[in-house]
């Protein structure tokens, strides 16, 4: 006989916080993990001993066990998924599923990196090529660095749809305009389209301002089951739906350079949340390069394929635009400490709670945003995780 599925619990983000970000020369990655975790826990108002789930990636010999030990945690649910910049949206989806199914009650997601400080101090080099072994070894001799892969994809979109350098530059200009209202952003001075176009070329067609900055920093988010919400210090931000998708690592296996895996992860997230792209008030999108923002907007359904260039014009992505995007300034202007996916979730939570200060988005009548989407991208459009969040 068919059986009914077990009841599921709603899942909320109860705490969200950043560690010190930007130029942090006197901290270790472990210290930034701990700082972000303490701040997120304090933000939630909950007790540390309620945490029975932990997710972390990219640090330690046995990540995330080493980081959990450093934080004094002994979780009974753990996740170390590592799919690049989308890791944190994918982890949030896994954590929400575990909590809904009763396998965990409170899951802490945390990240910390001293990427900028390490290079400055000579502790590691900045090598943007990947794959001395395996399938990627066949691309390395041709100069297929990470930046080059994104640049190739951008050129293909320009060729196929007539997207212009000026339109790509608009993404950087509007990210900087948003960062101007964020006191914690690394770069706040306004820039123009001409500033972007005339900068030093990094990988054609990208100049320096088409590319994300390099920073230090950390972030943490605490997800909890609905029965804990009454004890939280602040109103919950609910996880309404999530999706994930992986595409390729070898460029020759990528069927269409103008379509990212967000086309699938976004569709799944919106379907599971029961909302449409047109319902979304704000979007936090991974923006290591300007093209990422443009193509992710298309693939999430905010505009049709090929219309991203027109969509990003006329200040649409700014705090007062039709669809505020990367309201903290994004990886292009605020911070980008190696992997930025968790920062997208923190900023979405702050906006939905009305805690964003001078960069707070207000809709008609001064109301707070009701729905937000956070969509991370990993590798060179290799993976995508999309999460829909809401206040109600």
Salient structural properties:
392 residues, alpha/beta, Peroxisomal Thiolase, Chain A, domain 1, two-stranded antiparallel sheet, 11 strands, globular
How would you describe what is shown here?
The protein has 392 residues and is an alpha/beta fold. It folds into 2 domains: 11-121 and 216-239, Peroxisomal Thiolase, Chain A, domain 1; 144-214 and 240-390, Thiolase/Chalcone synthase (Peroxisomal Thiolase, Chain A, domain 1, 3-Layer(aba) Sandwich), CATH 3.40.47. It has 12 helices and 11 strands. A hairpin with a 2-residue loop joins strand 5 and strand 6. Residues 1-5 have low confidence and may be disordered.
List the helices and strands and how they pair.
Blueprint: E1 11-18, H1 29-44, E2 53-55, H2 65-70, E3 77-79, H3 87-100, E4 106-113, H4 115-120, H5 146-161, H6 165-179, H7 193-197, E5 201-203, E6 206-207, E7 217-225, E8 237-246, H8 262-273, E9 282-285, H9 290-299, H10 308-311, H11 330-333, H12 341-353, E10 371-378, E11 383-390
Parallel strand pairs: 2-3, 2-4, 9-10
Antiparallel strand pairs: 1-7, 1-8, 4-7, 5-6, 8-11, 10-11
Helix pairs in contact: 6-9
Strand residue percentage: 15-25%
What share of the residues lie within helices? 25-40%
What is the ordering of alpha helices and beta strands? EHEHEHEHHHHEEEEHEHHHHEE
Number of helices: 12
Structural class: alpha/beta
Radius of gyration from CA coordinates: 20 Å
Overall pLDDT: 93
Largest sheet: 9 strands, mixed
Instruction: Specify the overall morphology.
Output: globular
In spatial order, strands of the major sheet run 3-2-4-7-1-8-11-10-9
Straight-line distance between termini: 37 Å
CATH architecture assignment of the largest domain: 3-Layer(aba) Sandwich
Q: What is the CATH superfamily classification of the largest domain?
A: Thiolase/Chalcone synthase
Compute the number of strand runs: 11
What's the domain count? 2
Assembly state of the chains shown: single chain
Q: Look up the CATH topology of the largest domain.
A: Peroxisomal Thiolase, Chain A, domain 1
The CATH class label of the largest domain is: Alpha Beta
Low-pLDDT residue intervals, each spanning 5 or more residues: 1-5
């Amino acid at each position: 006989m068919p059986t009914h599925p077990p009841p599921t619990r709603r899942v909320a983000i109860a705490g969200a916080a950043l560690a010190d970000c930007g130029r942090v020369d006197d901290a270790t990655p472990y210290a930034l993990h701990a700082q972000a975790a303490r701040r997120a826990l304090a933000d939630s108002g909950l007790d540390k001993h309620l945490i029975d789930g932990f997710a972390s990636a990219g640090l330690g010999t046995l990540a995330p066990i080493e980081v959990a030990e450093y934080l004094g945690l002994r979780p009974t649910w753990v996740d170390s998924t590592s799919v690049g910049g989308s890791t944190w949206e994918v982890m949030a989806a896994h954590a929400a599923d575990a909590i809904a199914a009763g396998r965990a009650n409170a899951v802490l997601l945390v990240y910390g990196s001293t990427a900028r400080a390490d290079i400055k101090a000579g502790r590691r080099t900045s090598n943007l090529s990947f794959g001395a072994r395996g399938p990627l070894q066949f691309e390395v001799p041709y100069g297929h660095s990470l930046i080059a892969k994104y640049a190739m994809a951008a050129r293909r979109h320009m060729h196929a749809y007539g997207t212009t350098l000026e339109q790509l530059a608009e993404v950087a200009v509007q990210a900087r305009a948003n960062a101007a209202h964020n006191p914690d952003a690394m770069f706040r001075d306004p820039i123009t389209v001409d500033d972007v176009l005339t900068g030093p070329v990094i990988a054609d067609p990208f100049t320096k301002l088409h590319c994300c900055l390099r920073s230090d920093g950390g972030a943490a988010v605490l997800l909890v089951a609905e029965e804990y919400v009454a004890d939280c210090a602040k109103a919950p931000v609910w996880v309404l739906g999530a999706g994930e998708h992986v595409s390729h690592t070898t460029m020759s296996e990528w069927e269409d350079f103008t379509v990212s895996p967000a086309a699938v992860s976004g569709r799944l997230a919106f379907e599971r949340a029961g909302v449409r792209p047109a319902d979304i008030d704000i979007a936090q999108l991974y923006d290591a390069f300007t093209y990422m923002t443009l193509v992710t907007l298309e693939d999430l359904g905010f505009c049709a394929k090929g219309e991203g260039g027109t969509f990003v014009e006329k200040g649409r992505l700014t705090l007062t635009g039709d669809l505020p995007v990367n309201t903290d300034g994004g990886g292009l202007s605020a911070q980008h400490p190696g992997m930025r996916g968790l920062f997208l979730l923190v900023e979405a939570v702050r906006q939905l709670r009305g805690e964003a200060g001078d960069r707070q988005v207000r809709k008609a009548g001064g109301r707070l945003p009701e729905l937000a989407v956070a969509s991370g991208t990993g590798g060179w459009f290799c993976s995508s995780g999309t999460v829909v969040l809401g206040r109600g």
